[in-house]
Amino acid sequence: MIEDERLYFSGALNLDIIFEIDDLSIVSNWLGREIRPGSEYIITHSELDGLIKAIGASASEMYRGGGGSAANTCVALSALGLKTAFIGACGQDDAGKIILEEMEGVDLKIVKRSNKTATCIIFLTKKDKDRSILVAPGTDAYPLLEVDDTSRPIPFLHLSSLPTKRGLEFHTHLVSALPSWAILSLDPGEIYSSLGRESLSPLLRRTDMLFITQGEYAMLFGGIAPKELFSLLNRSEEARPLLAPGGVRPPMIVIKKGGEGAELFGVDGVEVAANAERISHIVDNTGAGDAFNAGFIRAWLRGEGPQECLKAGNRLAALSLGDWGRKWLRRLRGDHGTKGL
Questions:
Q1: What are residue 84's DSSP bridge partners?
Q2: Which residues touch 236 (CB under 8 Å, ≥6 apart)?
Q3: Nearest to residue 17, comparing CAs of 71, 67, 73, 53?
């Protein structure tokens, strides 16, 4: 893989608002349901507006800007110098304008704008530094990708979850239109994982690279061992132009374990683990898994081995923990560039 190939991404385009809070009890009490650290929830815009008023001075707003899992990975890879494009939808409102303006270097010609932008409230507890995500979905008027939308076929597509039924239908259509030789990377997140294997089957059976947390893995696959899951993924033997010598042959499963690092399972029997990088102070863990994906994908496209790919993912995840939201990307775009990554 050389870096003049354009990589495509699709998922939610959210306006993220991150609050630091003592504990989640006020959130749970106001919504009338338990809100747990590390989990994601769908709420309405009216609930979101009411909740922001209810928390008042009990929470401090620390960040407001673009978000969304695939979008985070896309912007990180763009900051690392790769050519990227996004396929999705956001509102015609000010929030949508902010989101798109922040996606520096990303080709946005296949982003459709209509109606309202999705808003994501993220609560980070001061003691545990773990986040809870509440998403109020926005427009689901997703673009239908036409032949003329790209100058050439899509060689690589990375997906993360969309919060509505229409979103999953859109991704299913998008995947069905991929060239048979293209690479599909999937990070289902908690939203898609909660739908179960049957609902995700159209995506899974085409997936070459599966990025998933331990909790999402249990939700989607239960106690099935990773090496037994490859029958559910893409087992095509067709030649793949993006496969670089020395890299791991897909399909592969990458399990993200937070502070414990990550594991990779390959169809050829490869089983590799790498410890997380230690940092002295965690500011915000929102999007750390998305940063991991970016580091891993970049290393894999360069043909690096499984251990090196995991380490590259862990390095970028650790870097992301040092600032709020996407502010850490300034270190990739600034004078330090990509040194050491």
A1: 7, 106
A2: 180
A3: 67
DSSP state of 195: T
Alpha helices in 56-164 (DSSP H): 69-79, 94-102
Q: H or E stretch including 293?
A: helix 288-301
* Distances, alpha carbon 325 to alpha carbons 267, 285, 299, in Å: 34, 8, 23
The pairing of strands 14-21 and 59-67 is antiparallel
Q: What is the C-alpha separation between 79 and 81, in angstroms, rounded?
A: 5
Token digits of residue 147: 């032949």
Q: Is the dihedral of CA 242, 183, 226, 75 positive or negative?
A: positive
C-alpha 60, offset from chain centre: 25
Query: What is the DSSP-derived secondary structure letter of residue 305?
Result: -
Provide the 10 A C-beta neighbour count for residue 24.
18
φ and ψ of 27, to 5 deg:
-70, -50
Show Cβ contacts of residue 292 under 8 Å, excluding neighbours closer than 6 positions: 211, 256, 262, 313, 314, 316, 317
Architecture of domain 6-13+68-116+139-333: 3-Layer(aba) Sandwich (3.40)
Lowest pLDDT segment from 2-16, 106-120, 137-151: 137-151
Question: CA 70, 75, 76, 82 torsion: positive or negative?
Answer: positive
Q: CA nearest 201: which of 226, 227, 171? A: 171
pTM of this prediction exceeds 0.85:
yes
Q: What is the pLDDT of residues 143-176, one digit of tens each?
A: 876 544 555 689 999 999 999 899 999 999 999 9
Spell out the domain ranges in the chain. 6-13+68-116+139-333
> In 10 A of CB 236, how many CB atoms?
13
